[in-house]
Specification:
Blueprint: H1 2-7, H2 13-43, H3 48-79, H4 95-120, H5 124-148, H6 152-157
């Protein structure tokens, strides 16, 4: 029974690989969005504002692809094989590491979405409300990170 439970960790490889495949698909879509926006800007005279919004939307897609990639790598590294040859900044040794990396990417996505609204929206009050909402989410994520972080200095004093 114990061996079966130990082997069950390999089931996590399925969503990890799925997240990585989904990331590749989103990267292709995001890259195509940028290329399409650039072509439309020069070929059909698309306005600069519309081009900026299209490119920001594509960048948002690329950031979502990055989130999926980090999730895929993180799950695989945590549950299946911790000896992956990844850059040091992408190595994930605990769920706290994965959480921190994901929160960082989510904050970047919020910033890109807000910037898109800032460029695209003409109603100052709507932009202000979106900015307040985005700021509240970022503050909430920061508070969550602060409240749940492990105090590594406390272990050395015990």
């Amino acid at each position: 029974m114990r061996r079966l439970i130990e082997l069950s960790r390999y089931v996590v490889a399925i969503p990890a690989v799925g997240a990585i495949i989904g990331s590749f698909v989103l990267m292709i879509i995001g890259t195509w969005g940028i290329v399409s926006a650039v072509i439309a800007l020069f070929a059909s005279g698309l306005s600069l504002k519309a081009s900026v919004v299209a490119i920001l939307t594509a960048v948002d897609t690329l950031l979502l692809a990055t989130v999926l990639l980090v999730i895929g790598y993180g799950l695989y590294e945590l549950f299946v094989d911790s000896s992956l040859d990844l850059p040091q900044w992408l190595e994930i040794r605990s769920l706290d590491d994965l959480k921190a990396k994901l929160i960082g990417v989510v904050v970047a996505i919020i910033a890109v979405v807000f910037l898109g609204e800032l460029v695209d929206n003409t109603d100052a009050n709507a932009v202000m409300l979106i900015g307040i909402g985005a700021g509240a989410v970022v503050i909430g994520l920061a508070a969550f990170t602060f409240a749940t972080r492990r105090d590594s200095g406390a272990k050395g004093r015990e």
